[in-house]
Design a protein that fits this description.
Elements: H1 8-16, E1 23-25, E2 48-55, E3 58-65, H2 76-92, E4 96-100, H3 110-127, E5 133-137, E6 140-142, H4 147-151, E7 154-158, E8 163-165, H5 185-190, E9 197-199, H6 201-214, H7 246-253, E10 259-262, E11 270-277, E12 280-287, E13 290-292, E14 298-301, E15 305-306, H8 308-323, E16 328-334, E17 336-337, H9 341-344, H10 347-360, E18 365-374, H11 375-380, E19 390-393, E20 398-400, H12 404-411, H13 417-430, H14 434-439, E21 445-446, H15 452-462
Parallel strand pairs: 3-4, 4-5, 5-7, 6-8, 7-9, 12-16, 15-17, 16-18, 18-19, 18-20, 19-21
Antiparallel strand pairs: 1-2, 2-3, 10-11, 11-12, 13-14
Protein name: Carboxyl transferase
Domain CoA carboxyltransferase N-terminal: 1-234
Keywords: Transferase
């Protein structure tokens, strides 16, 4: 590693990669422009350290912006170094990790910097779905630079110093930063959903390493496996109590009970993240109606309905999994759509996007109905009819058009309470039970909750060689 590794930007690379594995590329590059006295200023590496190394033995490419060089601003050569890194990454099929700490465009280089920055966008778009792209934000990421994490797959933000914005908080009508810091990690993780993980610098670097170890290196790589040290037939007796907080349920199902959740603070009614099953990485999507804290106390509750934010969060995640050939597991507990005036403006499109993501995905897809599965909201959550390869259901789950009592009230609107209760019980047995769905072939197997892990592992092993084609076309439009 070159002497530039002594900067904060270099130290972040050292912390991220395996020890002594980093090889720098372009250490001698400096600014080419001489306008506005730029030639009188030192610009070592033109403000960005680029190169490659390994994380847990897997090749990755890294760029880290150096805020001590012209505030880390992006000039022509700075951008070209990042573009060159992307070209190498796509040739060799390895992830790109960007460590961002930048004041924005370099004004002295004007259109040269602007053009080169556009080339970064173009490379990110070309790399999307080819190699994983990860952004870590440690300082400022503003203006046009804020588009870059939006073009990558996962974004990590340092919780105190990182700032992510297109327009600064003080530039927003009726706002200033003390009212609402729209650039903060808290806002970007809870409100915009752009930040997947937040924490201290050490924490997010450790989380980036963990994520890289779970992901394939590229869309053709199927070697993202480790030896499973957990019991494949492990019984999970506590699982039946976790239908509400499915983040806990996914942890219990996972090898060694390890679950990597992304966007945990955004749209908490939907859980997405990665687990390993029999050593293989699986993407998970689950409805959630309860949140328990570290002390085991119920902290939040939600209706088990689909929200706009939840659909968007899940759809983006499923599309990523499909692009990189990662199987998808869903835990379904949903009775409808969120019914508010605000939600109604966007829920149809959001639900369509999630339906499209599941139906369009050709990877192995397994669904577990752990609670209610009613109406078109269930169809949106990876049902048999929309493409799930295997559907399992817990014995007490309900699958149908709607709640049995509500259906009875509609069908027998003028009847007395006794009749409605009688017809509701009949409807529940004939039309809304897991058994009735299984008799019609909409559920493959009814399983006991504690046996879920072994059934899911077996299903994904059976589906390992799945191949499924779609009609020939350029791309869909949803």
């Amino acid at each position: 590693m070159s002497n530039t590794a002594q900067s904060l930007a270099g130290k972040r690379i050292e912390a991220l990669l395996d020890e002594n594995s980093f090889v720098e590329i372009g250490s001698c590059v400096t600014a080419r422009s001489t306008d506005f006295n730029l030639s009188e200023k030192e610009t070592p590496s033109d403000g960005v350290i680029t190169g490659y190394g390994v994380i847990d033995g897997s090749l990755v490419y890294v760029y880290s912006q150096d805020a001590s060089v012209l505030n880390g601003t992006i000039g022509e050569m700075h951008a070209k170094k990042i573009v060159r890194l992307y070209e190498l990454a796509m040739k060799t099929g390895a992830p790109v990790i960007g460590l961002v700490d930048c004041a924005g465009f370099r004004l002295q280089e004007a259109t040269d910097a602007l053009n080169a920055f556009g080339e970064i966008y173009a490379k990110q778009v070309a790399a999307s779905g080819v190699i994983p792209q990860i952004t870590g934000i440690f300082g400022t990421c503003g203006g046009g630079l804020a588009v870059m994490p939006g073009l990558t797959d996962f974004t990590f933000m340092e919780e105190k110093k990182a700032k992510l914005f297109v327009n600064s908080p003080n530039a927003l009508d009726g706002n200033e930063i003390s009212k609402c810091d729209t650039s903060s990690a808290k806002y970007q993780s809870e409100e915009s959903g752009l930040a997947d993980v937040t924490g201290s610098e050490d924490e997010i670097i450790a989380k980036m390493r963990e994520l890289v170890s779970l992901l394939p290196s590229n869309y053709e790589d199927n070697s993202a496996y480790v030896e499973c040290t957990d019991d494949l037939n492990r019984v999970c007796p506590e699982l039946v109590n976790c239908a509400g907080d499915t983040s806990i349920a996914l942890s219990l199902l996972a090898d060694n009970q390890e679950f990597f959740e992304v966007k945990a603070d955004y749209a908490k009614d939907m859980v997405v993240g990665f687990i390993r099953l029999n050593g293989a990485t699986v993407g998970c999507v689950a409805n959630r109606s309860e949140v328990y804290n570290a002390e085991g106390e119920k902290a939040e509750t939600f209706d088990n309905v689909l929200s706009v934010r939840g659909c968007k969060k899940a759809a983006d995640f499923v599309k990523f999994c499909d692009a990189f050939e990662l199987p998808v597991l869903t835990l379904t507990n949903v009775k409808g759509y969120k019914a508010t005036k605000c939600s109604e403006a966007n829920i149809a499109k959001a639900a369509a996007s999630l339906t499209y993501a599941f139906a369009n995905a050709t990877v192995p897809k397994v669904n577990i109905v752990v609670g209610e599965a009613f109406g078109s909201a269930y169809l949106t959550m990876n049902s048999k009819s929309t493409g799930a390869d295997m559907v399992f259901a817990w014995p007490e789950s309900q699958i149908g058009m709607m709640d049995a009592k509500l259906a009875a009230k509609i069908m027998y609107a003028d009847s007395d309470a006794a009749t409605i209760n009688e017809k509701a019980a009949e409807y529940a047995q004939l039309q809304s039970s897991a058994l009735s769905a299984a008799k019609r072939g909409y559920v493959d197997t009814i399983i006991e909750p504690e046996d879920t892990r072994k059934y899911v592992i077996g299903a994904f092993e059976m589906l390992f060689t799945k191949r499924e084609n779609r009609p020939s076309k350029k791309h869909g439009t949803v």
